[in-house]
Design goal:
Layout lengths: L1 H11 L1 H29 L8 H11 L2 H5 L3 H22 L5 H30 L1
Helix pairs in contact: 2-3, 2-6, 5-6
Amino acid sequence: MRQWLEDMEARHGIDNLTQKTRQLVLVSFVLLLLLVIYRGFLLQGDEFNWRPVVAFVLPLVLFLPSIIGKRARGHAWLAFVSLLYFTQGVMLVTLPGQGIRGVLEAIIALALFTGCMGYARFRSRQLRQ
């Protein structure tokens, strides 16, 4: 795996890979955030309760400074948090009527994980040069 990544860095360049993984992180982060907000509102009953929405959104929002600041370590931690949303998406697939939303959440969270891990690797190597 390491050799494959080093070959890819040599072929495409670290700057290009850093930019591509950053774009993947931004798109998947926004999509996951929107999906989680939507799901939080679906849990509402007759009256509005903000607690489910905050409970689902807060772990993602806490990483906004790291994403805006382009910090590799923050992206690495966000990758691990995204696995919680992946697990939740897989769990939703098993519930009746939640399959599509669960698959979407799992795929988007997996894209966020991949993008964050790639960005953390390429950005740290880029900063070392």
